[in-house]
Amino acid sequence: MFEGKTIWLAVNAASGSNNDAALAELEQAFADAACVIARRVGFHDEGAPTIEALQRNQVDMLVIFTGDGTMNSIVTGLYGWEGTILVLPGGTMNMLAKRLHGEATAQEIIARVGAGLARRERPALVRSPHGDGLSGILAGPGAAWADVREALRDTDVLGTIKGAAEAIGESTGGPKVYCRAPDCGRPEGYSAIQIIPGRNGLELEAYYAETLSDYALQGLALLRRNFREGPHDSLGCYQSVRLACPEGDEMGLLIDGEAASPAATEVEFVLADCDVDMLVTAHG
To answer: Are 282 and 100 in contact (CB under 8 A)?
Structure first.
């Protein structure tokens, strides 16, 4: 799938895996797959590649080696482009890469594509008025844990401790979020509801915390983006869902792990297909 194509590589020096050693390994993997990268674009310094730039340079494939937040910015900015995007795990959590390729490393993914073991798809996503979630959207006061995760990523110990205390306070005292349509789950609402896109619909995982140990478990799960480890209810799978804050407060949102502007008191999320082709190598 690489042969005869003009390929650009987008990287981000601020992402979790974009160090010199990782980039050297990436370049070697491309060379082993007989792939020539025509240009490397540094998101941190140059911004996201635009459709106009890709078309002007007749780029066939854009390879993205960044974290989930940067990935979202680049992919959603290329909606309508006729080329193909290859997502590689270049950040801390790499949730989108895991959706598309399983637990494979960047080198393994490149080898699969080079061997013709990839298919073009438009994966399902969560669409909202506040942005599309390629790997998922988290709604509710539990979104306050994003700041804790940033401090942890920057090895800011004092910031992590302070942020964790504030996040627990917001999770316990902040406005809860509940599922209005369909009407399901706890009537008193939840600290956070995670919306995960899948082939059959949007999976809802609702997180609650009733004791201090529950909050500690929930916070750890949110920090690790492994939401299913926290105490939660599985609310089912739907084509669309409407969430609301019962007290009429603005709803906190994390879209692909990044904080979005405060949402309205009630927001509808729907299942949609990505508006640009991606390469998928995961089985099934």
So the answer is: yes
What's the full length of the chain, in residues? 284
pTM of the model as a whole = 0.84
Between 2.60.200, 1.10.530, 2.60.40, 3.40.630, what CATH number should domain 132-273 receive?
Answer: 2.60.200
CA 236, CA 222: separation in Å to the nearest integer?
A: 20
Class of domain 7-117: alpha beta
Q: Are strands 277-280 and 119-121 parallel, antiparallel or unpaired?
A: antiparallel
Name which of 180, 97, 47, 14 is nearest 193 in CA terms: 180
Question: Would you call 27 helix, strand, or coil by DSSP?
Answer: helix
pLDDT tens digits, 194-217: 899 998 999 999 887 654 455 555
- For residue 121, give the H/E element and its range: strand 119-121
C-alpha 157/C-alpha 155 separation (Å) is 6
pLDDT digits (tens, 9 = 90+) for 152-205: 455 544 444 445 545 555 555 567 888 999 999 988 888 888 899 998 999 999
Please compute, for residue 195, the number of CA atoms within 13 A of its CA located in the half-sphere on the CB side.
34
CB 206 within 8 A of CB 235: yes
